[in-house]
Amino acid sequence: LCPTRYHHGAEAIAAAPEHRAETLYVIGGLYGNLPALDAVEAMAAAEPGPVRLCFNGDFNWFNVDDAGFRAINQRVLRHSFILGNVEAELGTVADDVGCGCAYPESVDGDVVERSNRIHAVLKRTAQRHPDLLARLQESALATRWRVGRLRIGVVHGDADSLAGWRFDATNLDDPAQREWQAAAFTRGNVDVFASSHTCMPVMHRLDSHGGKLIANNGAAGMPNFARSRYGILTRIGCRPSPHVALHGHILRDVHVDALAIRYDHAAWQKAFLDNWPAGSPAWLSYFRRISDGPDYTPAQAFARRNMPEADLV
After folding, report:
1. Which of 3, 197, 196 is nearest to 95 (CA)?
2. What is the DSSP letter of 222?
3. CA 96 to CA 99: how far, in whole Å?
4. Beta carbons within 8 Å of 27's beta carbon, 6+ residues apart
5. Terminal CA-to-CA distance of the chain, rounded, Å?
6. Do the Cβ atoms of 40 and 25 come closer than 8 Å?
7. Which range, of 43-47, 60-64, 305-309, averages the lowest pLDDT?
8. DSSP code per residue over 145-161
9. DSSP state at residue 312
10. Exposed, middle or buried, 245 (CB in 10 Å: 0-12/13-18/19+)?
11. Which of 85, 113, 118, 275 has its CA 20 to 30 A from that of 30?
12. By the 8 A CB rule, do 50 and 22 touch?
């Protein structure tokens, strides 16, 4: 179930105030991982010039302890941020949409039920911190950026909805979606959509439409590939990245890269288990991924879309 209040439409991005950056980090799906946030800030500090951080939702999830909830939100709220479905549902009275993820039908019902139980615990924690909850509820659903000559729409789900799944790898590969994809860039008046929400990274380039790019970072706070233990962020910069990129493109002289967030795995696993011991809803749904990564590979995320890099006008 996806509430109508989640629908913002790409047209809202076209009309939004434009923020500027020399280098922009888009960090989606932090999921309460403080060691990953430490790593992101260290990466930004190692850049040769100024960096803006934009958290595009779901920076909360496993941080159901009061100290963890305050630490994540106090630090994230110093930067630019938009709501994910997790944050959007923290301040609601009703629980009719659960975690608000609007999972596709292919997702097992037990996973959905456990996600709703996780969110219910997080929501009770959030209600004990009304100052942070008030700040969260003031946030937008999408934001607009410019880096060099590149226009960027930062969203959580897809171009039209906070919980949309059209920037999922499966949908991006669907020929039936190509007309919608092209129209979304026109309606949003952007060259790049930077998203998250689906928990699986993908970069999808549309050279046939003048060089457009959809960059979904997957998850900043969990492994994204099998047998890996790092998160991913999307870096958009006028200069090349000082960090080795997992994958990237150059559009209009601007570098768009997927960067690994190599956080302290042992510290994160301990923090997770302190809140979500064996047998708990989060442990059942996520511990295997946190320990060993999901059944997903860089080839699935990037190689099939690995078009030759070009400096597009």
Report:
1. 3
2. S
3. 9
4. 40, 53, 54, 55, 56, 59, 217, 220, 233
5. 41
6. yes
7. 305-309
8. EEETTEEEEEESS-SSB
9. B
10. middle
11. 113
12. yes
Global pTM value: 0.92
Nearest to 289 by CA among 267, 274, 272: 272
In the chain, alpha helices (H) = 10-15, 34-45, 66-76, 85-88, 109-126, 130-137, 169-172, 178-188, 265-275, 281-292, 298-301
Strands 150-155 and 80-82: unpaired
Tokens of 76: 């994230």
Which residue's entry shows tokens 């008046």?
Answer: 189
Contact 105, 78 (CB under 8 A): no
Q: Over the stretch 151-184, which tens digit does the pLDDT of each residue have? A: 999 999 999 999 998 999 888 888 888 899 999 9
Classify residue 24 as exposed, middle or buried by CB count within 10 Å of its CB (0-12, 13-18, 19+): buried
| CA distances to 34, 138, 214, 275 from 311, in Å | 36, 38, 17, 47
Residue 224: pLDDT band (50, 70, 90) is very high
Measured on CA atoms in the order 96, 101, 106, 112, is the torsion positive or negative?
A: negative
Supply the DSSP string of 242-269, one letter for each residue. Answer: SSPEEEEEEETTEEEEEEEE---HHHHH
Best CA proximity match to 73, nearest among 128, 120, 20, 16: 128
Backbone dihedral angles phi then psi of residue 35, each to the nearest 5 degrees: -60, -35
Q: Which token pair is 238?
A: 């006028």
Tell which residue, 235, 160, 145, has the closest CA to residue 191: 145
SS3 121: helix
